[in-house]
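Figure 2 data, in text form.
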Amino acid sequence: MSVSASDIAANLEDIRARMHAAATAAGRDPDGIRLIAVSKYMPADYVRMAMAAGQFCFGESTVQDAQTKQALLDDRRTEWHFIGHLQSNKARFIPGRFAWLHTLDSLRLAQRLSAAALDAAHTVQVLIQVNVAADPAKQGLAASELFSFVDRLLAADLAGIRLRGLMTIGRHDADTEPRRAEFAALRELGRACAERFGAPLFCELSMGMSADFELAITEGATMVRVGSSIFGAREKHDAGA
């Protein structure tokens, strides 16, 4: 089913109002939460309609699909976030095309991303993906691996990438309270990392999608990844819905 410009504008207005209400109810500043409109698998025209409605942060999960859209959408205001699983041999496609990578999960990927960022003369902001729910169907580090991974990452002193925080994907089939618990667990991991490694390295939490972004905001999300509630349903799902 096609979606019109007025549909996307109305959906964005609704999402923003709900984000504002959730933040206010939690005693948080709504301006401290960023909406990532997940445009993966959506046509460039839908992204253009969202831009016309004032949305400029977009999330993509495959390099090829993103490159096709980015070639058609040349606007300096646009900020692209890579939110899908990234193989280390594709790290070279990120710097210069994406300002953020939400799914860092290995030192090898970090090393290749750093080398590519230096070659491209572009810094990439990175989030470490944590599989809080220990879901075998999800990517990301186990919570128990996080501290040792950050130790190794910081010891490597990689230029071109800037560590900013953590990301997780909530379970699609979980009830409200288990999802809330997962988001709270990521918040506490972020807090522990900030105390251990330095607050500037862990100031961002990317969590929450169409079905649960309000819960995520309640538990401290600074970025929410919303796709289907803006653009309509899609056939594929991974790090944003």
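Caption note: The helical segments are 5-25, 44-52, 63-72, 107-120, 146-156, 176-197, 213-218, 228-231.
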